[in-house]
Amino acid sequence: MTIQQLTAQIHKKKSFLCIGLDVDLNKIPKHLLKEEDPIFAFNKAIIDATHHLCVAYKPNTAFYEAYGIKGWQALEKTINYLNDNHPEIYTIADAKRGDIGNTSTMYAKAFFEDLGFDSVTVAPYMGKDSVEPFLAFKDKHTILLALTSNEGAFDFQTRSVDGVELYKQVLETSKSWTNSENLMYVVGATKAEFLADIRKIIPDSFLLVPGVGAQGGNLQEVCKYGMNSSVGLLINSSRGIIYASQDEDFAEAAAQKAKELQLQMADEL
């Protein structure tokens, strides 16, 4: 999917909502555990109830890897369902990969070619030759971890080297990589006050912003400092939407939470 297609969907739906499909079998409604594939049954119900309210879905692969081959099969079913029924929706494999070049190429093939995701999250610590293999794929995007929403982000990301915070050096350096136009960046919603400085470095790039909802990030603050002329934001909410209810009405409850966020987003556009 191209950036132009993603932006068109944002304006059509008046939404820049990304829903995280982080499926924990201990948290889904108990009646789904009787299904042959409880993970996919849960995801399908959430997708069917919310696809008109969001522009992206983001499965965190850890929640599938934890269940072995059955988890991977559920992930494959989920991405196939999305690509077959809602090809206009942007898909993100939240895998946080990053390794030496030839290994990164294999990771990229796995998520872009085999599974058919539009994008994948990647850690920048090993530098350009670990990231450029992902960037080589046409109309696919690499979402680089820049400034994350967890407490430990302050251990390294905001530390200054020669007077410049590390996350700013990551942003600046990444712009020189081959096919850097295929980059997006993760910036946590709980770090909204940093967004103004981030936009000075990467004014035109899309930002994936987790942390709105259960983690306490503020949508209006993120929009105030992070939105650009083409919107340039994907705001992710996971637990706050998909676990809105553990009863049989869980999909309807998820849709209600998604609708609340979508209406707030419409006001920002």
From TrEMBL:
Position of the signal peptide = none
Which segments cross the bilayer?
A: none
Which residue range or ranges hold the Orotidine 5'-phosphate decarboxylase domain? 16-254
* UniProt xrefs under SMART domains: OMPdecase (SM00934)
Keywords, alphabetical: Decarboxylase, Lyase, Pyrimidine biosynthesis
| A Gene Ontology molecular function term of the record | orotidine-5'-phosphate decarboxylase activity
Q: In which pathway does it act?
A: Pyrimidine metabolism; UMP biosynthesis via de novo pathway; UMP from orotate: step 2/2
Task: Give EC number(s), comma-separated.
Answer: 4.1.1.23
Q: Which residues form the active site?
A: 96 (proton donor)
Top EC class for this record: lyase
Q: Which reaction does it catalyse?
A: orotidine 5'-phosphate + H(+) = UMP + CO2
Offer one Pfam family short name for this entry: OMPdecase
Q: Some GO term, biological process aspect, for this entry: which one?
A: 'de novo' UMP biosynthetic process
Q: Does the keyword Lyase apply?
A: yes
Q: Quote the InterPro entries the UniProt record gives.
A: Aldolase_TIM (IPR013785), OMPdecase_type-2 (IPR011995), OMPdeCOase_dom (IPR001754), RibuloseP-bd_barrel (IPR011060)
Q: Which family does it belong to?
A: Belongs to the OMP decarboxylase family. Type 2 subfamily.
Q: What is this protein called?
A: Orotidine 5'-phosphate decarboxylase
Underlying gene: pyrF
